[in-house]
Fold this protein.
Amino acid sequence: MTRANNAPPAPRDCIYHLATNADWDQARASRVYAPASLAAEGFIHCSMLGQLAPVAERFFPGRDDVVMLQIDRSHLTSPVRYEESEPGEHYPHLYGPLDLRAVVESWPLRFDSLGRTLLPASWQKEVGNSV
């Protein structure tokens, strides 16, 4: 992925990961993110932008101790494989630790009063085009 003038990647060109605040704080201190799923399953679960809200609502409903990570695929040092996790639904899996230099932004996971994920405004406009 090539970008002119070192512009940040478009949200649709990134992958996303949901991390607990404790895991993210530890990663920032150690400069590497290697959650328990990496040791247990061999990869880090990620999502495309259009998959992020449904994943958050399914696995982290109502939690206020989770951060959304926007990850620039072009800066990853570990391979990404898109694998079917549910019938017809392929998710990106990161097969190795996440190099923090690939993280473009992090945002607290928030929900509205109906339990729907609130994405940053800069990501919302791209959700319809990311699937």
